[in-house]
C-alpha cells in the first residue's frame, strides 16, 4: 500500500512530508527545520528579517519566498524550486535557485550539480506522480520506495540506466509495477518484503 503523506503547518508556512521522512522542528525557532532523511515540500511565507532555513547534512537551504522540494538520501541532498527563490548554503557556495532550477550535492563536497527541472515536477509526488529527466534508476527506485512505503532496489545490471518520463503512483504496489515496468523498460520481481527492478532479459534471483 502507498505511504501516507503528512502535512505540518508552522508559523504560516506548510511542510508536506513524503513517506519514510524524518524532520526535526525547533520550538525556539519556528523558521528553521532539519531534514534528516526522506523528502519534503516546503511552501514558505517569506520574511526578509527572518528567512526560513532547512539544514540538510552539512548544508543549509535558505528561502527567499518560495515553494521548494528537498530530498535527503544518505549523504546526498537534492533541491528543486517551483516558485520564488532559494539560496543553497548562503554562507559558502551561495547557489541561487530560481523556478525550474535544481541541484544535487553530497556532504563534504565543495561542488554542486545544478540542472533544470520542470516546475510541475517539483513535489509532484503529492499528486501521485514521479517525473524525471535522465534520472538514474537507483534514484527512481528510492523515490518509489518512499512513495509506496515498500523497499525497492535495482539489479547491478541497471546501474548505468537512466529514465526520462512520468510514473503514475497507485496505492496498490502490484498494480503500480504492472504499469510502470514497461515504461521503465525493466522486469519487476518480489524480493522479500519489497521489490527488485531487473533487466528485461535478466534472470531473477
What report would you give on this structure?
The protein has 205 residues and is mainly beta. It is built from two helices and 17 strands. The relative contact order is 0.12.
Give the key terms:
single chain; twelve-stranded mixed beta sheet; 17 strands; mainly beta
Oligomer: single chain
pLDDT averaged over residues = 90
Helix content: 10-25%
Distance between the termini: 24 Å
General shape: globular
Number of helices: 2
- How much of the sequence lies in strands comes to over 45%
Based on secondary structure, the structural category is mainly beta
For the sheet with most strands, the description reads: 12 strands, mixed
Roughly how many Å is the radius of gyration? 17 Å
Give helix and strand order, one letter per element, not per position. Answer: EEEEEEEEEEEEEHEEHEE
Number of strands: 17
| Low-pLDDT runs | none
Question: What's this entry about, in short?
Answer:
Helix content is 12%, strand content 46%. The protein has 205 residues and is mostly beta strands.
Could you outline the blueprint of secondary structure elements for this entry?
Blueprint: E1 6-10, E2 13-17, E3 22-25, E4 32-43, E5 53-56, E6 59-63, E7 67-73, E8 76-83, E9 86-88, E10 95-97, E11 101-106, E12 113-116, E13 129-136, H1 137-148, E14 152-154, E15 162-168, H2 173-184, E16 187-191, E17 194-198
Parallel strand pairs: 4-5, 14-17
Antiparallel strand pairs: 1-2, 2-4, 3-4, 4-7, 5-6, 6-9, 7-8, 8-11, 9-10, 11-12, 13-15, 16-17
Amino acid at each position: 500500500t502507498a505511504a501516507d503523506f503528512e502535512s505540518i503547518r508552522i508559523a504560516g508556512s506548510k511542510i508536506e512530508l513524503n513517506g519514510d521522512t524524518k524532520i526535526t522542528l525547533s520550538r525556539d525557532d519556528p523558521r528553521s527545520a532539519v531534514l534528516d532523511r526522506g523528502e519534503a515540500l516546503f511552501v514558505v511565507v517569506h520574511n526578509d528579517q527572518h528567512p526560513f532555513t532547512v539544514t540538510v547534512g552539512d548544508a543549509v537551504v535558505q528561502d527567499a519566498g518560495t515553494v521548494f522540494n528537498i530530498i535527503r538520501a544518505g549523504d546526498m541532498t537534492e533541491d528543486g524550486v517551483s516558485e520564488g527563490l532559494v539560496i543553497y548554503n548562503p554562507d559558502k557556495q551561495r547557489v541561487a535557485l530560481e523556478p525550474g532550477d535544481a541541484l544535487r550535492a553530497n556532504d563534504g563536497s565543495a561542488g554542486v550539480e545544478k540542472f533544470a527541472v520542470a516546475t510541475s515536477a517539483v513535489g509532484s509526488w503529492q499528486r501521485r506522480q514521479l517525473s524525471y529527466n535522465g534520472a538514474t534508476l537507483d534514484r527512481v527506485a528510492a523515490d518509489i520506495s518512499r512513495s509506496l512505503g515498500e523497499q525497492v532496489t535495482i539489479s547491478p545490471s541497471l546501474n548505468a540506466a537512466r529514465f526520462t518520463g512520468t510514473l503514475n503512483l497507485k496505492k496498490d504496489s502490484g498494480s503500480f509495477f504492472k504499469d510502470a515496468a514497461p515504461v521503465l523498460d525493466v522486469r519487476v520481481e518480489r524480493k522479500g518484503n519489497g521489490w527488485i527492478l531487473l533487466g528485461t532479459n535478466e534472470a531473477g534471483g
